[in-house]
User: Which sequence fits this backbone?
């Protein structure tokens, strides 16, 4: 969720109204934004814009544009005049399989001030990280064009054949070294993984502008306060997203008073002029508005509401502004009608149809078992289901019989789904060595077991007692009692299990199903957990038990 | 309590102690006079003090008591006395040692002691001959100071001894393990005004201590009184078995939904991309996916039980909108990737399963409480596992107005809040989307729920037709923490047994 930082004064200036922070917070809701913070001293406001499909809002300029629509300062799609520029971009065939699309334009007529520079950098970062999928799908570069000779060339080259000084560096580096050594190179190297040629942008004098999408040149690819002439470039693997980037930046710079000049992008087989406005429209029906919001609106009301949200409307055709690509379905537009109308004004309607409520039968059963065990004096605990194999097996002195493991875990501590619950109880004991005994605890929860290609999910309950005189009998009594509560009996078989003392471990079988292990935990395992008090324990498969009870 | 009732409340041990308190005040004396064990006296004094009958004073004092040899000599006599008794006629040292069976060391010590008391004469010739003096005879007749001293009552306070006794202690301390002097706590008691009154009262005897089967059988309780208990006294803590605090909270949430007419759903922990994201119309290659970064499973990598026809529908919805009037996401849907196993990132996967199920009822109201996992750093605000509560309402003709009314009901039912705000929000699978802000009576404005109407591109491929579905998820952890009175979210899964045993039941 992108969090956007801006100066309240700058926003007021862009909107042309003296908005209070409270008003801004309310208006942010119209862009699905949540207020984060405002610092009066620095005048810095932060808003989280949750909609990852609306990147135009990730700068003060876009947010101000939204506000101007809502407040009626501006109606419909704001006009941006694109002047014809003589900036040519030549796209070499060599990028076709790597990163085929590029959109460019120039902006002039204003000087970059501090606010704009901050916003442009922020928009670039948020756009490339989130919408641009960490630059994989789209990345954006801005240049001071007075240092450039046109046409500029977009092509892919041998990584060792090109050298330039990357941003914030002093020495020339080749592309391979940049990926290996430059911080941005290391961070984004994954985007170029598997390619033997890398895309670059160079001007007509072969001055390298950028190693795309990694790093700009320290010479041309750097914007500074008071620069007047900006050259913009977006590249990527998705043509619409690349054009969207150019449109969003063109609008933002236009909102700051810049004149926008087009560029001509020449591919080997076609040429396009960018910024390219999509000119998309979508039809909506009154009936759909009624279906979604229960609103019966007249045509002029629909028009008014849509214009507030910067659409153009005529004859139930809605034209979508060029800085939006998120409209897939008429409902996407109708949501904006609802937002402009005001969610608070939409009439509440109580659900009238009667439905019976039911809890899941199995969950009710688990609740009963837990109540029985608690009734026997046991304290329930609850643990994370994510754990690790050391915990599940090494510390319990058993072998891994099939575990669901996480492919790329955040930390080793949480790298596997638990396959049984008793280790959680052992951990609880180990964390409470100085707490008064007897300690009697239990936990019910989901476990997952992998059997080659199959995953089996069960609910199991582990019960454990720790005090000087605990023993097998105590657990056997627990098990017998629980089963008796459901009218069941079990057969007990001798069992061998690494966690328990040999000869003091049993398996319980109910109606031919192995449902439980019980016994006295071996001193070896107790020592592995650092425990100095004996433990007797039992683990019962409630999923199996429930099936047995249902069949009865 | 009046004096009479106070008297009736004394147990036999307290009575025994109280009786001697007007004559004796030191702990040691009380023990000696009553013949009770030290723990019994200590407990009785504590009880009497609790009842404001006595006050106790503790002092650090130097205490003299007999050591190992002292106790032995008390029984068999001091070695110098044994020595002296043996020399009614002069004897050599070796004769004395042989007759008295004293150790060499004791013989040497006795020699020194007796000589210093002028009780013996030593004649040095071929052999050393020891004989008794007149003063020695006098000592034998009248006794040694040391001998008298060790026969006294120990332990003794050093400070109350007279000069002569102190001198004896000094002498004995120089010898091996006869007396020891230690610093110890001395407890002295003093009757309070109440205690003084009580001791003058006639304390009723023959109170019944406890009801027993024999007592009931004989009927001997009739006409008698029971000893009165001090019902205000503190008793030792006990711990019962009980359900875990957070699970109990979640159980109440379940009951609440059931009582509101919702039906519970469930789904597996290990999900596929299909149910977790693709069926929810979240495009496979889109940033909307980033907000649900999840834990993919090593093995088995792919699910084998996906319903083929639904996968086909969902693929079409992603690619071209599946005839819903939507453009779709316009990319090549990866059927293999949709089978990829992942740990459930959110509970909405269960809603997707229910919508696609043959058992789906329209109209219907559904809910789920599900353990979910999100790729995140674990700290005070993030756990690797967390619980989500969500669900949906499916019914022809319902719309955003119904969603608002539903959210307001949740605000009332779960947060006791009447003041609410429903504001626009974003979820990849709902259009429109909203969030519910409520003014909690104590917490102020909090975000309680996210909701929306499931996109047609989600509903049609799963249900087979377009029906309005109001989907919602409530964030109850903050309310749980508030209700349970805890400040660190990790305490929802606390392993601290003392905390669990003492957690407030709410």
Assistant:
């Amino acid at each position: 969720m992108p969090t956007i930082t801006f100066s309240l004064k700058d926003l007021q200036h862009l909107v042309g109204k003296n908005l209070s922070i409270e008003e801004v917070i309310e208006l942010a809701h119209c862009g699905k934004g949540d207020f984060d913070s405002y610092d009066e001293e620095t005048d810095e406001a932060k808003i989280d814009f949750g909609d990852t499909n609306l990147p135009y809002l990730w700068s003060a300029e876009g947010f101000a544009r939204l506000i101007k629509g809502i407040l009626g300062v501006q109606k419909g799609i704001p006009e941006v005049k694109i002047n014809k520029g003589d900036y040519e971009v030549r796209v070499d065939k060599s990028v076709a399989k790597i990163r085929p699309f590029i959109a460019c334009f120039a902006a002039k007529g204003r000087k970059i001030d501090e606010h704009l520079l901050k916003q442009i950098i922020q928009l670039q970062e948020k756009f490339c990280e989130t919408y641009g999928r960490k630059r994989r799908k789209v990345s954006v570069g801005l240049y001071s064009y007075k240092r450039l000779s046109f046409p500029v060339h977009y092509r892919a080259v041998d990584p060792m054949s090109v050298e330039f000084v990357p941003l914030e560096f002093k020495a020339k580096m080749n592309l391979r070294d940049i990926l290996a050594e430059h911080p941005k190179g290391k961070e984004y190297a994954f985007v170029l993984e598997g390619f033997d040629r890398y895309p670059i942008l160079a001007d007509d004098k072969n001055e390298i502008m950028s190693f795309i999408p990694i790093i700009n040149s320290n010479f041309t690819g750097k914007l500074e306060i008071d620069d007047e002439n900006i050259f913009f470039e977006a590249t990527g693997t998705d043509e619409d997203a690349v054009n969207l980037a150019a449109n969003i930046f063109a609008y933002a710079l236009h909102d700051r008073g810049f004149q926008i000049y087009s560029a001509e992008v020449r591919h080997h087989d076609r040429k396009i002029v960018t910024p390219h406005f999509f000119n998309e429209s979508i039809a909506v029906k009154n009936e759909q508005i009624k279906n979604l919001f229960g609103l019966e609106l007249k045509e002029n009301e629909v028009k008014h509401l849509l214009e507030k949200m910067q659409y153009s409307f005529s004859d139930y055709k809605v034209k979508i502004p060029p800085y939006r690509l998120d409209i897939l379905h008429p409902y996407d537009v109708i949501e904006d009608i609802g937002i402009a109308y005001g969610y608070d004004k939409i009439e509440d309607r109580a659900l009238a149809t009667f439905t019976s409520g039911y809890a899941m039968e199995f969950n009710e059963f688990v609740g009963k078992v837990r109540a029985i065990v608690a009734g026997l004096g046991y304290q329930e605990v609850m643990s994370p289901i994510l754990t690790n194999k050391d915990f599940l097996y090494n510390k319990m002195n058993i072998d891994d019989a099939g575990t669901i493991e996480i492919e790329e875990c955040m930390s080793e501590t949480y790298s596997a789904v638990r396959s049984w619950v008793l280790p959680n109880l052992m951990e609880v004991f180990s964390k409470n060595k100085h707490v008064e005994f007897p300690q009697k605890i239990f936990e019910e929860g989901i476990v997952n077991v992998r059997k080659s290609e199959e995953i089996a999910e069960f609910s199991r309950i582990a019960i454990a007692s720790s005090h000087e005189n605990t023993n097998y009998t105590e657990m056997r009594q627990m098990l017998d009692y629980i089963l008796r509560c459901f009218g069941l009996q079990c057969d007990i078989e001798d069992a061998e299990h690494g966690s328990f003392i040999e000869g003091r471990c049993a398996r319980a079988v109910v109606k031919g199903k192995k449902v439980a292990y019980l016994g006295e935990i071996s001193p070896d395992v107790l020592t592995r957990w650092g425990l100095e008090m004996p433990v007797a324990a039992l683990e019962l498969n409630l999923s199996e038990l429930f099936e047995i009870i249902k069949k009865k | 309590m009046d004096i009479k009732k106070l008297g009736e409340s004394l147990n036999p041990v307290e009575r025994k102690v109280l009786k001697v308190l007007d004559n004796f005040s030191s702990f040691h004396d009380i023990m000696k006079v009553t013949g009770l064990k030290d723990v019994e006296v200590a407990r009785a004094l504590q009880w009497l003090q609790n009842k404001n009958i006595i006050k106790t004073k503790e002092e650090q004092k130097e205490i003299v008591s007999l050591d190992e040899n002292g106790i032995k000599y008390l029984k068999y006599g001091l070695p110098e006395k044994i020595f002296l008794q043996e020399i009614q006629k002069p004897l050599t040292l070796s004769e004395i040692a042989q007759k008295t069976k004293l150790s060499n060391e004791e013989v040497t010590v006795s020699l020194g002691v007796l000589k210093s008391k002028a009780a013996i004469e030593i004649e040095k010739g071929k052999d050393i001959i020891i004989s008794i003096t007149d003063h020695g005879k006098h000592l034998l007749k009248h006794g040694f100071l040391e001998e008298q001293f060790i026969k006294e009552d120990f332990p003794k306070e050093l400070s109350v001894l007279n000069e002569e006794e102190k001198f004896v202690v000094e002498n004995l301390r120089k010898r091996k393990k006869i007396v020891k002097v230690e610093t110890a706590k001395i407890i002295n008691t003093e009757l309070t005004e109440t205690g003084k009154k009580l001791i003058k009262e006639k304390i009723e005897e023959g109170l019944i201590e406890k009801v027993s089967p024999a007592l009931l059988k004989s009927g001997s309780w009739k006409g008698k009184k029971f000893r009165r208990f001090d019902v205000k006294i503190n008793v030792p803590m006990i711990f019962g078995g009980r359900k875990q605090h957070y699970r109990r909270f979640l159980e109440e949430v379940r009951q609440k939904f059931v009582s509101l007419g919702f039906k519970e759903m469930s789904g597996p922990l290990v999900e596929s991309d299909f149910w977790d994201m693709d069926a929810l119309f979240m495009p496979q290659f889109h940033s909307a996916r980033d907000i649900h970064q999840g834990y993919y499973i090593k093995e088995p990598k792919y699910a084998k039980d996906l319903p083929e026809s639904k996968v086909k529908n969902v693929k079409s919805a992603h690619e071209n909108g599946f005839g819903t009037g939507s453009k779709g996401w316009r990319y090549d849907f990866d059927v293999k990737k949709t089978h990829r196993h992942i740990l459930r990132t959110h509970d909405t996967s269960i809603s997707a399963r229910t919508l696609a199920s043959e058992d789906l009822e329209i109209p219907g109201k559904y809910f789920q409480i599900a353990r979910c996992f999100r790729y995140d750093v674990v700290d005070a605000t993030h756990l690797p596992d967390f619980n989500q509560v969500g669900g949906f309402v499916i019914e022809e003709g319902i719309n955003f107005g119904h969603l608002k009314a539903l959210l307001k009901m949740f605000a009332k039912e779960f947060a006791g809040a009447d003041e609410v705000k429903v504001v626009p929000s974003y979820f990849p699978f709902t259009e429109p989307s909203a969030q519910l802000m409520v003014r909690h009576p104590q917490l102020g404005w909090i975000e309680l729920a996210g909701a929306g109407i499931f996109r047609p591109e989600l509903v049609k491929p799963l249900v087979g037709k377009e029906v309005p579905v109001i989907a919602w998820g409530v964030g109850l952890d903050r309310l749980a923490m508030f209700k349970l009175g805890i400040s660190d979210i990790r305490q929802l899964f606390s392993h601290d047994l003392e905390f669990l045993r003492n957690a407030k039941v709410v």
Remarks:
- The longest strand of chain A covers residues 439-451.
- The mean pLDDT of chain A is 94.
